[in-house]
Amino acid sequence: MSIEVDEQTKKQLENDLWGDRCHECDSWIRPKITCYHLKTEEAYVITCPECKFTIVVVDIEKKPTEVIPQM
Question: Radius of gyration over alpha carbons of the chain, in Å?
Fold first, then answer.
C-alpha cells in the first residue's frame, strides 16, 4: 500500500536523484513519486511518466545497537 509523499521529500528526491529531466528519454515532465512503507523500511519509486524509466530508493531503519563497555 502506498503512502503520501510530502512536498519536501519529493523536492529532495527530485534534486538529488532525478535532476531536471529523465535520465532515459530527456523528458522535462516531473516524475511520479510513490512511497511504500514496508516492515522496517520505506521504498520510494520515482517513475518517468513518458517512458516509465524508474528509480527505486529504499530507506532502511537502523535500530541502535547496544554498546557493551570494555573491561
Answer: 16
CA–CA separation, 52 and 67 (whole Å): 45
Which residue range(s) make up the domain with 34?
A: 2-60
Q: Give per-residue pLDDT as tens, 29-55.
A: 999 999 998 888 889 999 999 999 999
Burial of 45 (0-12, 13-18, 19+ CB in 10 A): middle
In a domain, 68, yes or no: no
Give helix then strand counts, H and E, for the chain.
1, 4
Distances, alpha carbon 61 to alpha carbons 27, 38, 43, 48, 58, in Å: 33, 10, 11, 27, 10
Structural domain includes residue 13: yes
Q: What is the pLDDT of residue 3?
A: 84
Pairwise CA distance, residues 51 & 54, whole Å: 9
